[in-house]
Amino acid sequence: MTGHALPAVAEALYAQAKRGITTMLPSDDAAWVGRELASRFGLPTWQMAMTATDANRFILRFARHLTGRNKVLVFDYCYHGTVDETLAVIGPNGIQISRPGNIGAAFDLALTTTVVPFNDIAALEAALATGEIACVLAEPALTNIGIVMPDPDFHTALRQLTRQYGTLLAIDETHTICVGPGGATRAWELQPDLFVIGKPIGGGMPVAAYGMTDEVAARLAPLLGDEAVDVSGVGGTLSGNALAMAAVRATMSNALRDEDFALATPLAQRWAAGVKGVIDDHRLDWHVQQLGCRAEYWFCPPPRNGGEAAAASDLELDAFMHLWALNRGVLLTPFHNMALFSPHHSEHDVDVHSNVFGDAVGALLA
Fold first, then answer.
1. Can you tell me the distance from the alpha carbon of 223 to that of 226, in angstroms, rounded to the nearest whole number?
2. Sorting pLDDT into bands at 50, 70 and 90, what band is 334?
3. Residue 67 exposed, middle or buried by CB count within 10 Å (0-12, 13-18, 19+)
4. What's the pLDDT score for residue 259?
5. Are 248 and 286 contained in the same domain?
6. Distances from the Cα of 365 to the Cαs of 18, 283, 330, in angstroms?
7. Which of 1, 33, 211, 298 has its CA 20 to 30 A from that of 64?
């Protein structure tokens, strides 16, 4: 979303590397980054991590500590990196299972995790009503099983129900920062207790951040002020290192701004329109979804949850579409059939893809 090898980021990394990569102390950049994150996403207190996976792990530890509950609730086919508690899906007959591909699972997910379908408010309430859930960890829209959009009332219900049952709400915007400079949280007026943002804010440098409300920060203060916090399982030597902070400051000063999305989002709209035109012309039972500067097509009608999207996955067809495009000068993202636009793309780039996509579908149907 920022583009590759941004000069401002490269220059900031070079300048900071000469001064020191990690100091295990705050930098001037850290203060600037904290203020910028608070301004964009609306939460006042921030900590840094190296990856969004780590940030998600840390906030789940905080949630279990604050609530005295053991379980996290996630949505079927969500994406929160490699967090153990989130690698679960709803299997055959509605039974929760480890997600396929989850190598060497560390523990029985039934002890730590509850999975419900995205957009299923009744299932959400039933799970929260057990009183077992410390935290709901949610993407504003599902983004790693195609793009699955929330129903109009879903986030309102999610916030109301988590408050009703004393469960913390964590929003992970590592992917949905594509919606705008403040992500879906600002654009859709979400009100999380905890918030995670990952790799985009570093412009390619490994870094992440997690934020929290004043209330959560105040409740955590005694824990964080205790000398035993050094072995809490939260943080790490390189979290907030000087090189990463320089990258975040340079990225957020020169990319992911209103003016950048004003260029990139219309390109995603144009890309989606081009794909939809081909789908409609051939009367295919496919759909294309656009979320800010991100767009993706999937081989089914628009799903309401991850299970429906997963059922339409076709790895062989994915591979064909990618290879066809690659051989004609179009490199899609290396997973799914997704385009992620930056201000450095052009309408010509989009139109080349539309033509290549149309030819691929024509060859499939010939």
1. 5
2. confident
3. middle
4. 98
5. no
6. 57, 11, 21
7. 33
49 in Cβ contact with 210 (< 8 Å): yes
Instruction: Write down the pTM of the prediction.
Output: 0.96
Residue 335 has pLDDT above 90, yes or no: no
What is the DSSP code string of 246-279?
A: HHHHHHHHHSSSHHHHHHHHHHHHHHHHHHHHHH
Same domain, yes or no: 317 and 303: yes
CA 125 to chain centre: 23
Q: Is 104 a residue whose pLDDT tops 90? A: yes
181 lies in the same domain as 32: yes
Taking the C-alpha atoms of residue 174 and residue 9, their distance in angstroms, rounded to an integer, is 19
Residues sharing a CB contact under 8 Å with residue 273, sequence separation 6 or more, in sequence order: none
In a domain, 175, yes or no: yes
Q: Provide the residue range defining the domain that includes 328.
A: 258-365
Residues contacting 229, CB < 8 A, separation 6+ = 223
Q: Decide if pLDDT at 92 tops 90.
A: no
**Type of residue found at 336:** H
Q: Check whether residue 298 and residue 334 sit in a common domain.
A: yes
Sheet (strand 338-340) strand order: 287-291, 294-298, 338-340
Quick one: what percent of the chain has pLDDT higher than 90?
Answer: 90
